[in-house]
Amino acid sequence: MIRATWSEVRRLRTTVLALHEPGHRDVVAATHDLGLTLSILGRPAEAEPLLREAVDGAMAIWGEHNRVTGSFSGDLARCLVDLGKVEEAEPLLLRANQVVEEALGAAHPDTLRIARETARMYDRRGCLVEAAAWRAVLARRGVDQDVIPVSR
To answer: Distances in Å between the alpha carbon of 78 and those of 12, 107, 119, 127?
Structure first.
């Protein structure tokens, strides 16, 4: 796995924007990576518009049923949960889980990550029955819910 700093990812996006038109798949990917980096660094308010732009771009390029669009939507939903926008995150997570599971399978790390985020979102909403149901899905898949493998 390659690791990059926030400034390296920002510099990469600037370079990609200089080389390609907005909406190009490389621009969409770089925008997603910058948003995801900000989200991971605990800066969800800055990440949200970038992740929204990346999801919109992925929809335009790959369509609603593509694994990339599903994964990007899951990342946006996690950011929204971090911002307390859990009601907005719910349909994104449910759709992302469906798309990614259909494309990659139930045991794929992206599917497991989105399932864990769905349980976390239901916890934040106080929907304990739904959260327990998602945790049961993870348990049936033999997943330690504190350790989800990373596929990136």
So the answer is: 23, 20, 11, 17
